[in-house]
Amino acid sequence: MALSVSSIRRHFSAIKDPRRKHRRLHDLLDIIVIALCAVIANANTWQDVETFASKREAWLRRFLPLANGIPSHDTMERVFDRLDPVALQRALIGWLAHVSGALKLEHVAIDGKTARRSGSPAKGIGALQIVSAWAVEQEATLGQVMVAEGSNEIPAIPALLEMLDLNGALVTIDAIGTRKEIAAKIVEGGGDYILR
Predict the structure, then answer these.
(1) What is the Cα–Cα distance from 169 to 161, expressed in whole angstroms?
(2) Considering 4, 49, 89, 90, which has the largest number of Cβ atoms within 10 A of its Cβ?
(3) How far apart are CA 38 and CA 23, in angstroms?
């Protein structure tokens, strides 16, 4: 099954554990699986993640060893703060592409957004702009790419498309994505497109 721990292990095994070996009370995979399950279940803070895991410890033990029990929210936060964000994103997108392939994506909507209150005009900091891929039927984000400062969504869209398995999917993008090279990238990935 696409959501098995073995598929998570396969996709996240390249992530290096940032902790010293003698300080590792909890397996890195345990922490990652707990965080994934909790976020899917709508956890928004590390305390939410710990609460989720504590309430479902018996269920989690069915597929995780949890040799030292449930990690605290402080432990999970420290571990995720120290993980290589690029490696984590690559692993997450690879796993999501694997899951989405099993889910038979039909419609992927690509759209750019500006994160509210992410900038500070007084300090000369621009707002964070992100291009996201949304699996419409599954109601899940498949990936995100940050728009480079001083740029727009156009260069970010092909980078996002490269991360996705578009085979058989219909990709929709608003007017900014109406470029021949973007359409070619979608077709190259096995998808169809509507650029409007």
Answers:
(1) 12
(2) 49
(3) 24
Separation of alpha carbons 101 and 168, rounded Å:
10
Query: What does DSSP say about strands 107-114 and 170-173: parallel, antiparallel, or unpaired?
Result: parallel
Token pair recorded at residue 2:
């696409």
Q: What is this structure's pTM? A: 0.62
Would you give the DSSP letter of residue 131? E
Q: What gap in Å lies between CA 78 and CA 194, rounded to an integer?
A: 43
Tokens found for residue 143: 């990936």
pLDDT tens per residue, range 64-74? 999 999 999 99
Residues 153 and 176: beta-carbon distance below 8 Å: yes
Q: Tell me how far apart the alpha carbons of residues 155 and 60 are, in angstroms, rounded to a whole number.
A: 41
What number is the average pLDDT over the span 70-79?
97
User: For 105-195, which CATH class?
Assistant: alpha beta
The Cα 148–Cα 128 span in angstroms is 9
Q: Which of 49, 109, 39, 111 is nearest to 77 (CA)?
A: 49
Amino acid residing at 6: S
